Amino acid sequence: MSKRLYIAALAAALVALPSIGAFAQETKSKLDEVLARGHLVLGTGSTNAPWHFKSADDKLQGFDIDMGHIIAKALFNDPDKIEFVNQSSDARIPNITTDKVDITCQFMTVTGERAQQIAFTIPYYREGVGLMLKADGKYADYAALKAGGSGVTISVLQNVYAESMVHAALPEAKVDQYESVDLIYQALESGRADAAATDQSSLAWYMTQNPGRYKDGGYGWNPQTYACGVKRGDQDWLNFVNTALHEAMTGVEFDYYAKSFKTWFGKDLTPPQIGFPVEYK
């Protein structure tokens, strides 16, 4: 290489240095940003028990809220280093893509359409439709309801899919639709319905609030996955949140996750098997 060409190449390399630095700055992970800030900013709701709702002393609580505390503890060894942004369901994705929040945990169902807009974490809950019966009612469980055929009445929240949803599990049952979840519970309590059908998490929460009065039908269908969401394109941040959630469900923070699950859904979780990691069986 001639001296003139060498000098030209060196000059071009020096000119490129600022853009290389700018690129490195632009690709800095959200993980670094959150650590530098000193607290996590999490988007969630405030009106849907047992997921995210206000306590009597106006504090946010619920299963989604506890997932936020798990992530904050993984970041700062302090579950309370977290700021909650109260948002509507419609704002869940826009607030992620515009960086108003670091992450959203708000009983968000994983779908292909949403996964084109944001990156989903690993699941932290599997939702489904369930059946709740009166503890002293005519029918013992799902099998008895199914055997009851057209003589069984199910109360359900009014929507265009209500009949087909119920008939997927109980093909012959009569379906009574109501305008609110409270009304489907009232129909069961008054005897107008033999069972109420809605999200299993809602039924579990209602039964924990009314111990001994109701029982689970022992059958679930229409599965859907709940996961938190982060901005696309930041693998370091996604990996970190996945690690925090994974270890809550299978490792060092299992006791906290299990206590939360028991509090909001009334069910005891079996501790993870020691030895070979169960997720690779």
UniProtKB/TrEMBL annotation:
Secretion signal span: 1-24
Stretches assigned to the Solute-binding protein family 3/N-terminal domain: 39-268
GO terms under biological process: amino acid transport
Keyword Transport: yes
The entry's keywords: Signal, Transport
Listed InterPro entries: Bact_solute-bind_prot3, SBP_3_CS, Solute-binding_3/MltF_N
GO CC annotation terms, alphabetical: extracellular region; outer membrane-bounded periplasmic space
A Pfam short name: SBP_bac_3
Coiled-coil regions, chain positions: none
Family in the record: Belongs to the bacterial solute-binding protein 3 family.
Protein name (record): Transporter substrate-binding domain-containing protein
